[in-house]
Each structure stands twice: as structure tokens, then as C-alpha cells.
Design a protein that fits this description.
Number of helices: 7
Order of helices and strands: HEEEEEEEEHHHEEEEHHEEH
Helix content: 25-40%
Number of strands: 14
């Protein structure tokens, strides 16, 4: 494919997703109907703490009433200071995240600086809106976005709807099939000035309770050594919580639930 050349009116600028749109490389899912069993990612959550955010997601992907994948990673690093948690049709969601990551890298190389955190949320909102025609075919993508805002020195999180509408949340957010149950746990457990350790435990507890009542949400699989993906984003950047730390948290939850 030859290098594309644009006139002034059609120049996509530093937006990689707009560049793909200009050269006609946007995916078309219009041929996929509702009868196709497309794997779906399910429950994801994000919580603000005193110094950043914690984001988590279970590992189960479902296709109809079948478990199509047991170890899907739904929390993905977008760049040094931000992350995306995906829920919805797994294929389009994963592709959207990859394009989003490339867009941020492309912007940084073109402009010589990082895009602001709010600018990243706006970019992801545009990409979700561009997926609206596919969403009408049943391939809905509804991610959570969040990170550490280096300009404001605080963690921030955003929720989205299928049309690309974005809504900043000041405390916590949950999406996916288990979101109602997660939100209840988060509402009861969230407080001002949470520590990062408290936020990690709260995220684990919310995913545990969601998995207990929602068949599409996977809980910790001790036999296979599969635990939810949980990440912290703070002034030090992205950091994934280790499975050893998660195992201790879930064992404590199991003891607490068993004593109930």
C-alpha cells in the first residue's frame, strides 16, 4: 500500500484512528448477525483511591451459555498512566483497544508529548461512537477508562455508553453483566481517602460477589491458578497487582464468607 497523501481539508492530524478512517481501514461488522455466538467479555470495575485508581476485571468470556475463554485479560494498559477495561463483544473490544494504544503512541510521536488524560477519554469516546453501527448488530463495546492525571495529580475514571457518551465518575464505576452486584459492594465499601491496598481488596470483593450470582462473571480459579486482572495506576505509572497478592486477598474473602 503506498504512503497516503492528504490535502489540507482531509488531513487526519495526529489521530491514528482518524488516519485509519481516511484510508478505509475501519472494520465492518455489518455482515455479522445476532445468531452468531460472539464471545463477550463481562464484568469490570474501577475505584479511585488516595493517589490514583485501581482497575479490575474477571477473566471469563462467554458465548451464549458457553464459557468460551477462562483466562481473558480485560484490563489493558493504554500507556504509562492510563488503562482500559473492556466489556462487550470481545473481538471488536480488543481491536478497539489496540487501535487506541497505537493512537496514543502515534500522537506522542507526532506531537512530542503525551495526550492529556481527558483527551484520551475523548479519543476513546470517538472510537466507541464509530462502532455504533456494529453495536446495532449486537457487537456492543462499553469499556471503562481511567488513569492518573499528571496535570491534576489525581486519579480519574470514566464510564461510557454505546453511543460514545462519556461520564466521569468521582468514586467508582462498574460495567458488564455483573455490574449491578459489583456496584452494590463498591457503594457499601468505598470511602474517602482509600489506600491502594484497601482499593485492591474492595475491587476483589466486588468481583467475588458478582461471580457468586452472575454466571457470566468468572471468580478466582484456584485449581488453574487464574485470578482476575487487577492494576494500580498512580504517579509511579501502571502496575499490575501480582497473583500472589490477589491470592491472599481472595483467601481472606473466602474465610470471611465462610464465617458468615
Amino acid at each position: 500500500m503506498p504512503l497516503p497523501v492528504f490535502n489540507f481539508a482531509e488531513d487526519p492530524g495526529s489521530s491514528f484512528s482518524e488516519l485509519l478512517h481516511r484510508v478505509g481501514l475501519n472494520p465492518d461488522y455489518s455482515a455479522i448477525g445476532h445468531d452468531h455466538k460472539v464471545p463477550h467479555a463481562t464484568t469490570c470495575v474501577a475505584v479511585r483511591f488516595n493517589g490514583g485508581i485501581v482497575m479490575g476485571g474477571d477473566r471469563r468470556a462467554t458465548a451464549g451459555n458457553l464459557i468460551s475463554h477462562r483466562s481473558m485479560e480485560k484490563v489493558v494498559q493504554a500507556d504509562q498512566f492510563s488503562a482500559v477495561a473492556i466489556a462487550g463483544a470481545a473481538g471488536p473490544a480488543m481491536e478497539m483497544v489496540k487501535v487506541f494504544q497505537l493512537s496514543l503512541e502515534h500522537y506522542e510521536k507526532v506531537e512530542g508529548k503525551l495526550l492529556s488524560l481527558e483527551g484520551k477519554a475523548n479519543l476513546l469516546s470517538t472510537m466507541i461512537r464509530q462502532n455504533l453501527s456494529a453495536a446495532m448488530q449486537g457487537l456492543v463495546v462499553v469499556p471503562i477508562f481511567g488513569g492518573y492525571d499528571t496535570r491534576r495529580s489525581e486519579g480519574r475514571i470514566w464510564n461510557f455508553d454505546v453511543t460514545g457518551g462519556r461520564y466521569e465518575e468521582t468514586e467508582y464505576v462498574a460495567t458488564g453483566s455483573g455490574s449491578v452486584h459489583c456496584s452494590t459492594v463498591l457503594k457499601m465499601g468505598w470511602k474517602e481517602n482509600l489506600s491502594n491496598d484497601e482499593a485492591v481488596k474492595l475491587v476483589c470483593r466486588s468481583l467475588w460477589e458478582a461471580a457468586d450470582v452472575d454466571s457470566a462473571t468468572g471468580g478466582p480459579d484456584i485449581r488453574r491458578g487464574i485470578y482476575p486482572v487487577v492494576a494500580e495506576i498512580s504517579a509511579q505509572g501502571w502496575s499490575r497487582v501480582s497473583d500472589d497478592r490477589l491470592r491472599v486477598a481472595f483467601e481472606a474473602i473466602n474465610v470471611e464468607v465462610g464465617a458468615r
